[in-house]
Amino acid sequence: MKTTHFILFAVGMVFLVSQAEGTEWISTGTSPLGSEFFYDRETLTSLPNGIIKLLAKMTYPNEGRNQFIRHLISRDPRYKYYESFSYTLSSYEIKCAIKEFRITAISNHSSDGQELDSFTYKRQPSEGWLPMPPMSIAETLYYTVCPSQEK
Who contacts 129 (Cβ-Cβ below 8 Å, separation ≥6)? Predict the structure, then answer.
């Protein structure tokens, strides 16, 4: 009986600790259309080749979200499952020294966190790099996460 209580206690503690250590999204700003952008500081990874990897999140205002859903469903009724769409997660890689970026994966999620769909780009290390568009989310992330970068 003591063993059963100990196991239940241990499982409960693991659950509580994992909930407390959830992702802490840090806002990097809002787009002119009202989408809000965040990044997860815990996912920042500096690679030896000067690349910084991170996970970013984009939430959508109600009207933008609704337009996006209507557009998808009008193209293909099978997208009806997108009615619960809430946010997008994107994996970024940023070359700080030359101000380039690429997105390596994208996933769309419902309000309860369920993944609706995802896409991972299969590229060689030299492929898919783009210059930072001025006043873009990529440029905002660049100024936020790249060391010694000033606007």
Answer: 95, 100, 101, 102
Domains contained in the chain, CATH given: 22-145 (2.40.128.710)
pTM, to two decimals: 0.77
| Residue 81, SS3 per DSSP | helix
Phi-psi label, residue 128: left if phi above 0, alpha if psi -120 to 50, beta otherwise: left
Tens of pLDDT along the chain (151 residues) come to: 443 333 333 333 333 333 334 589 999 988 877 889 999 999 999 987 889 999 999 998 888 889 889 988 999 988 898 999 999 999 999 999 999 999 999 999 999 999 999 999 998 889 999 999 998 889 999 999 998 755 5
Rounded distance between C-alpha atoms, residue 151 and residue 73, angstroms: 40
Please give the single-letter amino acid code of residue 17.
V
Alpha helix ranges (H) inside 28-111: 62-75
Q: What secondary structure does DSSP assign to 68-117, as a single string?
A: HHHHHHHH-GGGGGGGGEEEEEEEEEEETTTTEEEEEEEEEEETTS-EEE
* Structural contact between residues 91 and 141, judged by C-beta atoms closer than 8 angstroms: no
